[in-house]
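Archive transcription. Copying these from loose printouts into the bound notebook so they stop getting lost. Printout 1 of 2:
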Amino acid sequence: MNRNFILLCIWLIMPFIAFSQGTSCATSIILSLDGVLRPYATSSGTGANVLCTNNGTTPVTWFKFTSNAQGQCPLLNITVSDSASCEVAFYTSCSSMLSSSSMCFYRGYGLWAPNENLSIIPNTTYYLRVKTSTACTIKIAGQHFLPVNDDCFGATSLSTTKIADNNACDHPGPGVLPSQLCALTLENTAWYQFYVLRTGYSVINITNIHCDNGASNNNSGFQIGFFKGNCSALEWINCTNGSGTTIQATTNQLPAGTRVYVAIDGISGSNCSYQINGLNIIGVLAGNIRYFSGWQTDQSNILKWTTLRESGGYYLVERSGNGIDFVTAGKINSRLAGSENVVYNFEDPYPSAENYYRLKQVDPQGRQALSNVIHIKRERSPGIQISMNNPASNVLNVRTGIEYPGKYNCSIFNLQGQKLRSFYKIFNEGTNLLLVNISDLPPGQYSIIIENDSTRANKMFVKL
């Protein structure tokens, strides 16, 4: 056959191929699930609704995608340019539609993902029949999606800064009951976590909510549960639910430093996009810290942590005598942003008998997050026992139990390790009374250290 004749035939049929693409399941447009937003013109094919409220015979465009080897959830962000109603029907084959995984976008945009009960088969082709109200442009961004916060163990850290998220590929959360989220059923639960900043109530704000589900239920709302404890043994706090484009949920009154887990579930399994943040909360420093540990030397406590990858900013080491009220004990600037597996050390030279420590990370944008709290308990120093009125106003009444009489140095430090006062005192064997004027000290936490060449004791106190 003449080569020029073949080229002429190809040239003649190319417009027909392009014009017919997407008109039927057999000519479906291939979607690449690579996260790139692409525009597609509606096909010349038309048809009636197969699921949603009938709006006559209008353009129908077919698409297809192939699942990856892991069978991860396919997530599509779909927008039609005419902003009118759009029907997305899901097919496992050209002749088999699943209504449970089909949706109606009555405002012309939304997130599509298969029903939570559908198991995606790896390396398998699936089809979408998209019916628009007019001939327009369909914009689609698709990806193979595995949400990190699908369960409690991957809970996303929350702060006062809004983050954009969705629950379209999440599944029912393990280890919780629907009633703990003020729900009848759980379908697509997303998890978050935070620390309570100050003793009291914490508030979660969910805004810019847009939800879609099935043919008729596009209820923009959530069922929300609060928990404490740990992911292996969650303790329920309270729950609430609500609808609309903005929802607030409030915890019960909780002590500062309480780690709270939040589970949110779309009403009736709705796929929702939203923004979420909180009040009276601070983020959880978890994903970037490999470990945070502490140990004792004879005279001090040593804290050590390793970061997987630096984001810049700095770290504050915070200390407490009761595990609730923390103050800054030191500051360490982070290494160059992008540095990996960085090891940090911090020495607390004046620890007391009970010591609680945590890290606060502050990134270059000023966002803050906390680590877990570690507890270091030191044995009482031999030879000296200290008791006192605590808290104290103007005079600190210190009783010392002395095993070896002699000359002792007495010092007062603030929690930043700065020595504020130092003097010597002769103690007899047995109980001694020491009166220390602290009227000039600002209110706060302090330490008194009594020591000689062979022994030392440390006690924390609060100045009112």
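Printout 2 of 2:
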Amino acid sequence: MWRIERCTSPGGAIFIRRIMELRNLKTLQLLEEIAKDKPISQRELSHSLQISLGLVNSFIKRLVKKGYCKVTTIPKRRVKYLLTASGAMEKTRLTYEYISMSYQHFKSATQKVQRLYLRLQNEGHTRVVFYGAGELAEIALHAKSGTKIQLVDVIDPERKGEKFSHFTVKENSYLNKTEFDIILITAAHRHDAIMNEISSIGVPLEKIRFF
């Protein structure tokens, strides 16, 4: 399991909180897999949860020790994990905690974008292009309500042709065909590569803002 050292700095406290959030999320995912009540190997759980086989084993030992699940042998030398009543209660608690945490992150991100939109309006920039059509773009779209910001296009080479709101997602070459004031980077990753892609098209850096 993760070992958490004592840390009093603000940055360290944030790191510890994120480690604990990740641990709780993986515990919830594991309990959800066990709740399906079907035989599953630790290797399959490792693949499903995207964590190492050793970490899966440590998680299961912890769940058994706490009484959240039981291990029983079934034919063909396989094992089956059974969710206990206390394990079901823990799954419900972690689900509520995850929903609450997700809502707080969503609320905080929405407020952050709304402050950015207010600054853009004060600068006279209202025509915005989203670069990235994932979850951050969904939040940015939600935050637009009640502002003068106008979304004029959505760019995402990896998702071109897909629908985002009433837009068809386009590749970055369309930036030369769209009239806009600001490109808002709503992609969660590849920021350096995206900056290079946008710069190569000739878009000035002052027209780029980050989520």
